[in-house]
Amino acid sequence: MYSTRQMTERTGATGRQLGSWSDKGWLSGQADKPGTGHHRVWSEDDLQTVTLMMRFIRAGFSPGKSWKFTSVIKKRDTTKEGVRIRIGEDMWIIVRGL
Fold first, then answer.
1. Which is it for the CA torsion 18, 24, 26, 27, positive or negative?
2. CA distance 54 to 9
3. Of 8, 37, 40, 79, which residue is the least packed, with the fewest Cβ within 10 Å?
4. What range defines the domain where residue 42 resides?
5. What digits encode the pLDDT tens for the residues 20-36?
6. Is-contact 69 49, C-beta < 8 A?
7. What is residue 30's DSSP assignment?
């Protein structure tokens, strides 16, 4: 499990981004105690999700598109054939080896 500080240091995402993405259901972001004002802890899966999302965001994609791409990639085995994601009329992203 990771603290918000560890997540921001490892991924470059801000604490506000993590909270927003958790509120949208993109991350688990479990609070150590239920309710507001308590620290969240993040799973290994959250770390992998945010790391990949930040790669897309740094490449110029919106957080929403980054989440869509990340969710497709996480559902598939990228080590063999890779994953093709259509991003436009005649444009694709191919992801391999994650």
1. positive
2. 12
3. 37
4. 2-95
5. 999 999 998 776 555 56
6. no
7. E
Handedness of CA 69, 72, 74, 78 (dihedral sign): negative
Instruction: Work out the average pLDDT over 46-50.
Output: 94
| Cα–Cα distance measured from residue 54 to residue 35, given in angstroms and rounded to the nearest whole number | 28
Number of structural domains, the chain? 1
For residues 10-40, one letter each, b for 16 or more C-beta atoms within 10 angstroms of the residue's C-beta and e for the rest, the string is ebebeeebbeebbeeebbebeeeeeeeeeeb
Q: Is the pLDDT of residue 18 over 60?
A: yes
Amino acid at 21: W
Three-state secondary structure call for residue 1: coil
pLDDT at position 44: 93
What values do phi and psi take at 79, rounded to 5? -75, -25
The CATH number of the domain holding residue 65 is 1.10.1660.10
- Could you tell me the pTM of the whole model? 0.77
- The token pair that represents 54 in the structure block: 């930040």
